[in-house]
Amino acid sequence: MLHIVNKSPLERNALDSCLSAAQGGALLLTEDAVYAATRGNAAAGKITAAMAGMKVYVLGPDLDARGMTDRLLEGVTSVDYGGFVDLVAEYPTNQSWL
Amino acid sequence: MGTIEVSGKSYETDEEGYLVNLGDWNEEVGAYLATTESVEMTDQHWEVINFLRDYYNEFQIAPAVRVLTKAIGKKLGPEKGTSQYLYDLFPYGPAKQACKIAGLPKPTGCV
Amino acid sequence: MSEGTIKKFMFVNRKAPYGTIYALESLEVVLISAAFDQDVSLVFMDDGVFQLKKGQQTKGIENKNFSPTYRALDGYDIEKLYVDQESLAARGLTEDDLLVDVTVMSRAEMGKLMETMDVVLSF
């Protein structure tokens, strides 16, 4: 399934909660959650670890807005809004860890 | 919400007559907005209007009058950096009138 | 506020921009407060340090990019900007990543500074 997280990993436990439950599939980071997939962020290691078992995506426009595009973690795929829709369509179910 | 007509094109304004879309502005629209404020535009007026537009492009806000006065004094000369000078040009308040003519939103803190 | 009484105001910014409205709201209140000639300090800590990150481009999310406005604060005589060192480090940021000049200090120093204020506003 597709897991969606939109909260900063250093402010809320949504990412932790998601990663402790997720059994593969894909993770899409949007809004403030995109910080988790940037180099140097204290939560970046969790994303790197998660990539062993699931595909990780970030919403590109959210990364751009925050001025973090040039420090996206290697192995994470940036998608646009069309890509977001494709992901939702690709997986039969999705969970938003609001 | 309202609209103004300039040279056969219509532009959206808010209930106080400020342009809704910053990108709609051109000198002709500015000149029309000046007539709605009964301001007769001179080179000195346009100098302030252009200054305001530059300021907005750089900082994404319309400056408070005090800040505008100081910045104009720095850029255009101390004799122009006084509130007297700006109020002579825009008698109902440089913030309110000049921002409207420049097509900018109302300055923050100006109620 | 009666004339002549200058109070020490501190605005504490702890939220990332865009995800919530706090950052923009704080900035607007700061600009309004400048009209009252008070002694204003701005603190950026936790995710609040992201507010000052260079290179923000918001076209894609159709939000107003208000980051250039931090560079106008100087013209409003708001010159006391403090950033928490630990918060920067935990986010892979350094002073060079910020779009304005700031004073970087430790969390403990920040806490001490907070104690010296007359009014603390939280965002």
Protein model, in words:
The complex is a heterotrimer of chains A (98), B (111) and C (123). Chain A is of the alpha/beta class and 98 residues long. Chain A has one domain (2-97): Hypothetical Protein Ychn, Chain: A (3-Layer(aba) Sandwich), CATH 3.40.1260. Chain A is built from 4 helices and 5 strands; from the N terminus they run E-H-E-H-E-H-E-H-E. Chain A has helices at residues 14-21, 44-50, 60-65, 81-90; strands at 2-5, 26-29, 55-59, 77-79, 94-97. Chain B is mainly alpha-helical. Chain B has one domain: DsrC protein, C-terminal domain (Arc Repressor Mutant, subunit A, Orthogonal Bundle). Chain B has 5 helices and 2 strands; from the N terminus they run E-E-H-H-H-H-H. Chain B has helices spanning 27-36, 43-59, 65-76, 83-89, 94-101, and strands at residues 2-6, 9-13. In chain B, strands 1-2 form a two-stranded antiparallel sheet. In chain B, strand 1 and strand 2 (9-13) form a beta hairpin. The radius of gyration of chain B is 13 Å and the shape is globular. Chain B starts with a strand and ends in a 10-residue tail after the last helix. The mean pLDDT of chain B is 91. Chain C is globular and about 45 Å long. Chain C has a single domain (8-122), classed as 3-Layer(aba) Sandwich (Hypothetical Protein Ychn, Chain: A), CATH 3.40.1260. In chain C, strands 4-3-2-1-5 form a 5-stranded parallel beta sheet. Chain C has helices at residues 22-33, 85-90, 107-115, and strands at 8-13, 39-44, 80-84, 103-105, 119-122. Chain C is of the alpha/beta class. Classes of the chains: A alpha/beta (98), B mainly alpha (111), C alpha/beta (123). Chain A binds chain C through residues 6-8, 10-11, 31-32, 35, 38-42, 44, 60-62, 64-71, 80, and chain C through 15-20, 46-47, 50, 53-61, 63, 65, 67, 90-93.
